[in-house]
Amino acid sequence: MGLSKKEKKHFLLNRGVVEIIEKDSLERKLKSGRKLRVKLGIDPTASFLHLGSAAVLRKLKQFQNMGHQIVLIIGDFTATIGDPAGREEARKPLNRTEIKKNMENYLNQINLILDINKTEICYNSAWYAKKQQNFFYTLISKVTVQQSLERDDFLKRWKAGRPISILELLYPLLQGYDSVQVKADVEIGGTDQKFNLLMGRRVQKIFTQSEQDVLTIDLLIGADGIKKMSKTAGNFIKIDETPDLQFAQIMSLKDELMPLYFELLTDIPDKKISEIKNLIKHRGEGLKKIKSQLAFEIVKSFHGAIAAGTARRNFERVFMKKNIPAGMPVFKLNKSMNLKELLLKSGLALSGAASQRLIEQGAVSLDGQIIKDWRFEIKLTSLKPAVVLKIGKHRFLKIQQ
């Protein structure tokens, strides 16, 4: 970016940042010249990361570029409980086999943003596996049920009569103790993580450590334009998605989301983002060109400039000229199955519920015909020799025997 040290610090403390607790403390730490330990915890709940995760990782990269030590905690222990943050129902806990499988791709994807060789990687099972029962009793005794119910997601579920497990109440405490274990100076997370991040300060104080400063990042709205990007909502864009599909998914975003995506996922100047906001407000010309720039910048950050340029040209050829892509993925069907199952088996939907929802909303078509019945059966005899399945505007799949 070619920024001065002062400009880098301003960018660090302001770009995409919603709140800093305590800002004066963090500024003093930065001014001291000390190498800070900056923590982020990630639970391996799936085999991929999405752009919402990338937004937080980019903030870590800014700290790393200024010479600070990034401490990445892979929550292979806490994932067996399930983080309740931002949820109105309990998250399904993962077993050890699922966690190990999900962890395999995480570091490769994180390395697209952070310099993994300069990153301290910790697995919190390393310390929790050694703890005795008395440790957990002591930790639990330090926080009351009333304090736990201060968090919005628990309170909503309490009022709605939805279950809250004791394990879920324990999760923020364990995340907080992670900060003690790695002696964190700063912890970063989305705004939905604020309760957990503050718990880190509380637990550090219990163990007579200096309290970490907390920096919360704005949440990236997903491709549906409504909810935060998440695997659960199915509105995600994977950071390791193919360049062509990633470019197309970004081009399908609502115009109103562009400033947020530019702010969290690119390094373009704040002044330019203000101009884009004004252009959107007055429905000015050139919005497609700006969105193409956004898609290019994001794809470039994960795949390089050559791949991003190719993806842009392919998008213009395929979608702006209404052609069907020649290089679409192929799914080989060896038995007849209904449309809901096909979306699940082909990886176009993460769950049966998500698959059914896409179909019933009219987002799925076969050879140009919209199908709203998830029971619709695709038979081997109807493939002639292949059919093209389309989801939304920009996702294609060729089905053949």
The count of strands amounts to 13
Main pleated sheet: 6 strands, mixed
End-to-end separation? 50 Å
Query: In percent terms, what proportion of residues is strand?
Result: 5-15%
Helix content: 40-55%
* CATH topology (level 3) name of the largest domain: Rossmann fold
Question: Topology, pairings included?
Answer:
Blueprint: H1 5-14, E1 17-21, H2 23-32, E2 37-42, H3 51-65, E3 69-74, H4 96-110, E4 119-123, H5 125-128, H6 133-141, H7 145-148, H8 152-160, H9 166-182, E5 186-190, H10 194-206, E6 213-217, H11 243-251, H12 258-265, H13 270-281, H14 287-303, H15 305-320, E7 330-332, E8 337-338, H16 339-345, H17 352-360, E9 364-366, E10 369-370, E11 377-378, E12 386-391, E13 395-400
Parallel strand pairs: 2-3, 2-5, 3-4, 5-6, 7-13
Antiparallel strand pairs: 1-6, 8-11, 9-10, 9-12, 12-13
Task: Describe the structure in your own words.
The chain is α/β, with parallel strands linked by helices. It has three domains: 213 residues, HUPs (Rossmann fold, 3-Layer(aba) Sandwich); 78 residues, Tyrosyl-Transfer RNA Synthetase, CATH 1.10.240; 71 residues, RNA-binding S4 domain (Structural Genomics Hypothetical 15.5 Kd Protein In mrcA-pckA Intergenic Region, Chain A), CATH 3.10.290.10. The strands form three sheets. It has a six-stranded mixed beta sheet, sandwiched between helices. Helix 9 crosses helix 10 and helix 12 runs parallel beside helix 14. The termini are far apart. About 1% of the residues have low confidence.
Short note summarizing the structure:
With 401 residues, the chain is an alpha/beta fold.
